[in-house]
Amino acid sequence: MRILITGNMGYVGPVVVSHLRSVWPEAELIGFDAGFFGHCLTAPGPAPELALDVQHYGDIRAIQPPLLEGVDAVVHLAAVSNDPMGKRFEVVTDDINHRASTRLASMARDAGVKSFVFASSCSVYGLAAGDARTEADPVNPLTAYARSKIATEQALREMNRGDLTVTCLRFATAAGFSPRLRLDLVVNDFVACALSSGQITVLSDGSPWRPLIDVRDMARAIEWAIARPAENGGAYLAVNAGSDEWNYQVRDLAQAVSTAVEGTSVSINTDAPPDTRSYKVDFALFRKLAPDHQPRISLTESIAKLRDGLNAIGFDDPDFRASQNIRLKVLERLIDQGRLNDSLEWADGSRGGWRDA
Hints:
The protein has about 350 residues and is an alpha/beta fold.
């Protein structure tokens, strides 16, 4: 089996690559990444890319058909990856997350690829009061990032897919340790606060709901989607990926972290206006279709892995929100240094194609 993983040098990618290598040791794993965050390593040991057969570098907007020759499955992770980056780079977010994704899927179809796995997001539900959202419920994307995800889902649903099986995994909010850790995610941020200052400050009133999933369980869901036959869910499938047990209110997440990191206090701004992003998600369809690939990691385990992983690298940075562990800060520094332009293109013109490792 030959698998192309785009965006493999981000937060989720290294964990996915490691998991796929363990599940399919004889598979040919190919990485493709712009390299923005290659230096943002947060774990000792060899680079995660050593688990690949080859690493290509390039702009997903300019990926070329020859790279898809002989590929059986595409795992498409490459994206402008959160709301702050989407707000700062709104046009680019649509260009990369939506238009380049649609182009890649068309190229995959034309190359005879059998499986296309798209990393979508439960953030497409936006503000959703009441019952947990199912795939049949209306979406309400509130940000450029969420709009780009639902636009891609729609394009993939409507395109002539030929023999290509498409799976859009609407992932819950990611959490957990990675060799390229992000600290701009709610649980990860809380653990970093607890370790660096002994205090978690919740800027909202703590009531918003968030569905979460550990990054290791994301990798297991991707494994399932790669091998999913069309008769299990349809040739096109958009499915919530996570577990009902991981629907948490933000205040409960803060309390769970304070329990795991001794001596941590929690401050909640009870006078804050309600957060507009609040939603619970129903994962019944995922349970039905993927019974052997359900999330296994508990919130307690995920927090402990974060705590222990950060302790192992001596993390103690109270100013971490200005560090390379915040993806927007990395991009802004590269722009300030003249290495990237505002369209997130490398100054050396590497958008024009790719180069091997």
